[in-house]
Design goal:
The structure is a homodimer. Chain A is α/β, with parallel strands linked by helices. Chain A contains eleven helices and 18 strands.
Chain lengths: ~400, ~400
């Protein structure tokens, strides 16, 4: 076991050494808000990515995956646009995504295949390539070691706030930094939400190790959130490691790397939920007493996506019966006679007995903005999981029911 | 192949010969509305049942299952209360459910085990047994061959209307009738919805055949609907066949029986969706071009439960990209280049090409109350499925967010 410590620091993707970023407005969004970001590593970086599991994958997903394969897991730049998802756009869409990487490569001086690309916005609409092309030139000229915040703003759609996080980790080889930015479920027009995440580090990490650590850190951060159970055609998380800190991480440092990645990914993931469409409350769901972690995660995910649980939390209703019902449909392993339900600090059901006299206390707790729900499935097993979700509100319906045109 | 025809007739559970029913108010509901129903067959009937797949099963589910086993698939009466689910109520709950069957058996003159019981309402609250006991006596005294409508009203919670259907089927042996009633997702208090269905027939059908036919008919009717993807602790569908028509059905009549059951179960199922909490539109989802029927059903179910699809339909937004995205996450077998999306009569996406110029036409169509969505997954396979759902509205949130007390 290697001793290490990590601590949160200010900043985002440009907090680690050797990264520059920028965000500009180039007219993809009709409202004139920033809509194109570039992130560049001063030296070629190891690169890793986690992509949407959706079978309908957008053109930028296909191109980025292809580039990572061709480059053997290295990259020098990432270009991202908001306002248009470039999904379900056929051969033109693929050609547009490739063109974005070519233009970025030319502007920052690297190979095409060293550029990763991501898009978010409306599905089925083609990119306005003249605007995108001008935007890439503009963004390349604006690259700055202080550009992380601008980049984070330009990947937003209707996110209520931009999302950045950074951390510093110390290990036997020295100190390195990790930075990140993300965007969540809000859209310039009420279309499919896309979750994008970008993580940088100035540690030196081989691509395979970076990929393994990113997958692990994503699993219980970005993959442990849900706003509405939907999975986009464009979801992706990229990680770049450029070694600029001089700290080289080996397989022995895997726990350090995962912990440091989590320290950045977890607040970004939680911020995505806090900024979920129409959300007024963050819900942290903890499931324990499952036979396996997988059972626990299935249950936690079902609770995170339950409209009845999400509306109950919205209304401040300590309606524990809904948690039992969701747990009962999500897993075959609920043992009702030994199960336990807690809403914040208030135990409402235990060993088959409801404590309805505590409902008022639980209702008080639910007036807060940070809500914890705990379900113990009662199997006595070691399985547990945590998920983050938000409440379901009339505003969510309003945002997503408005006709686009 | 046996020739048969079925036609819809007026009435509900007492449309077939030899059934009596009643519905009364006994004070389980604080607002004084009817809350207890009894359904009786004049002669012992074959009985079949389909129960919730939820692991957390309410006391009446456990008792009814036990009675069906002990009686070898026969029953003479069904007692149902609304206003209290008798779920998560421990040993007391079990004893209350048994007591309901004992009281009903005594009042109508049959064995305890010949009585099935169902409950719907708030989870985790015990039944007020004095009121229930008085209600059973009252309902037994009110039993009538015209009591179907009263029974259908007394099983409602906040259903906006009661749900009855009946059909007459002619086969080589003669003419028999099937009747039914159901309740859906609306509650006296905003708690877990429960779907209850009750089907009667005056055909003579052996219990095993009735069970097989009920399971088949339920599969593409009651099991093909979703209001909010939730599955209750109390869901059940009962069928009683008393032979009063003198028409005996054998295994050869299985297609007739299933068709006749579907003719009653399908309108009841659709009415449950129409009366779904906050619903303003019925959505019929058809999925074709899947490799298997199971793939098609998985996709149809995901669309039926997608908050983004349900809000888009609510807002009249022909947002076909959401259908692609849901199909892509629900199945591994979507072939985007050959997939097809239709909103009513309007094709919006086909063979990789969007037809956004038809969006206005599709938006016009979406102003209606009966919406059809068709997704062809493009695999060229024979798999298809149909599901019914409703739109997701701010009213759904309001109903389910209101604090209970």
């Amino acid at each position: 076991m290697i001793a290490f410590e990590t601590q949160t620091i200010a900043g985002g993707v440009t907090a680690p050494a050797g990264f520059r970023a920028s965000g500009v407005a180039c007219g993809i969004k009709a409202n004139g808000k920033p809509d194109l970001s570039i992130l560049v590593s001063e030296t070629p970086a190891s690169a890793a990515a986690v992509f949407t599991t959706n079978v309908a994958q957008a053109a930028p997903i296909l191109v980025s995956r292809e580039h990572l394969q061709r480059s053997g897991g290295t990259a020098a730049a990432v270009v991202v646009n908001s306002g248009c998802a470039n999904a379900c756009t056929g051969a033109d869409g693929l050609s547009h995504a490739r063109e974005m990487t070519r233009l970025t490569a030319a502007a920052v001086g690297c190979k095409d295949e060293a550029v990763l690309v991501a898009s978010t916005g409306v599905i089925g609409v083609k990119l306005p390539m003249e605007k995108v092309s001008a935007g890439i030139r503009l963004a390349a000229g604006a690259l700055s070691p202080d550009g992380g915040a601008a980049a984070a703003r330009a990947i937003m759609t209707t996110d209520p706030f931009s999302k950045e996080a950074a951390a510093e980790a110390s290990t036997r080889g020295g100190t390195f930094r990790i930075g990140g930015m993300a965007k969540g479920s809000g859209m310039i027009e009420p279309m499919m939400a896309t979750m994008l995440g970008f993580v940088t580090t100035d540690a030196m990490v081989a691509p395979a190790l970076l990929q393994r650590a990113l997958a692990a850190a994503t699993d219980d951060t970005f993959n442990a959130i849900s706003v509405d159970g939907e999975c986009s055609t464009n979801d992706c998380v990229f990680a770049l490691a450029n070694g600029a800190s001089g700290v080289a991480l080996t397989d022995d440092d895997y726990p350090t790397l995962v912990a440091a990645l989590r320290q950045v990914c977890e607040p970004l993931a939680i911020d995505i939920v806090r900024g979920g469409e129409g959300a007024t409350k963050l819900i942290t769901i903890r499931v324990t007493g499952a036979k396996t972690n997988a059972d626990a995660k299935t249950t936690a995910r079902a609770i995170a996506n339950s409209p009845l649980v999400k509306t109950a939390v919205h209304g401040g209703d300590p309606n524990w019966g809904r948690l039992v019902a969701v747990a009962g449909r999500a897993t075959r392993t609920l043992v009702l006679e030994r199960a336990r339900i807690e809403v914040g600090p208030v135990e409402l059901f235990s060993n088959g007995t409801p404590f309805d006299e505590r409902a008022a206390e639980a209702a008080d707790y639910l007036r807060g903005k940070d809500i914890e729900l705990h379900v113990d499935l009662g199997t006595g097993g070691p399985g547990e999981a945590r998920m983050w979700s938000c409440d379901l509100t009339a505003e969510y319906v309003r945002i997503n029911a408005d006709y686009r045109t």
